[in-house]
User: Fold this.
Amino acid sequence: MTTQSPPTPQPADEPSSTDAQQSPDAPELFSRAFIDDPYPAYVWLREHAPVHRTRLPNGVEAYLVTRYEDVKSVLADPRLSKNAATAFPGWKPGRTGIPGEHRSGIAAHLLNLDPPDHTRLRRLVAKAFTPRRVADFEPAIRRIADSLLDECERKARDGDGTVDLIRGYACPLPVAVILEMLGVPEEDQAIFHEWAFGVVDRDGKRGGVGRSVKRIRGYLREIIHKKRLNPGDDLLTALVRASDHGEHLSEDEAAAMAFILLFAGFETTINLIGNGSLALLTHPDQRARVLAEPGLLENAVEELLRYDGPVEFGTWRFTTEPITVGGVDIAAGEPVLAVLGAADRDPRRFPSPDELDLGRAAGGHLALGHGIHFCIGAPLARLEGRIAFERLLARYPDLALAEPVEALRWHSGLIMRGLHELPVRLTPTQPDAS
Assistant:
């Protein structure tokens, strides 16, 4: 697990060979041990194969980029396209991207587009996620967080004293927030929570994610039509009405945009809360530190993002011409994956990177991306994370794991890093007046 990663060796002065398969010391990638704790493998890759071609679990061969400066460069390089359908000769629906998005007709979203389409669509919705607009949701986020913790406490009292912090708190909180922002009617939100969990649970029944995506797309088609007829004061209405220099979103564009805002608006935050809670539970000294200094929470969120971030790999990119990364030549039409989790543990950028230090100046981490595809919902994710940890620690300062850390299971999906469940034992403090 992440708490057992070995100390990071001093970085080598020069890049070394990328032919990791020929080394007997090369780590096995994408095994269960790697999924549970990838960080020792990233130590080896950064030092011996910082730009490494490998076969992914889905059969696609891609280059993994693991050093901080190389990853940052890749994320901002305009010669790398996000549009697999035009830039990747081996592309087939379902091989890259979100399962089911092409079959559901909602693949034309920000994660799959290049300028100028990306620039136009991002500009149309960016105003909904400014720090000032997002700050208006702080009371709602607090209300939702406290309501969920009330329900967790009831379940703990009625059961054996334990709850799953993922299913009971980390997942429903950001889903409820983004549904409220989008303007999904309250009576429809319960089923949306189930669909959202179906999208996140990528290790479940075969085809389950695709079915959830299809159901969400069908619902969005219906509600967008209703918003056209009966506008409201919400993000879906804003998408329907969005215009920039006379340009409007088509209904398909509005549905694709709503889907990716919904998808990106909850899965990243689920993993931020889940991974961050585990880090605090396994580092009691750091938890005590933030309990003693509540003003440290905002900085703590940045360090938790860096230490075990919610997005392990940057989303798919494809070379549109031959490029050189870290001294390695990459031909046109090749998939390239920037390994954010490896970059944010690079000792060239972050001293003692395998240590959790909530007082660290963690600014500059790449957990939410970099360049034109930097997470548009970053202000919302940061606010939700800060409030989620604040309310959880205030009410349960003695929160404890209910299972050994070695028994926890991590999702095996390629892009995101998150837990299936996080069983905890609740020990409430006195009722909080805030």
Notes: Residues 251-281 form the longest helix (31 residues). The first strand starts at residue 51 and ends at 55. Confidence is low (pLDDT under 50) at residues 1-21. The two ends are 35 Å apart (CA to CA).
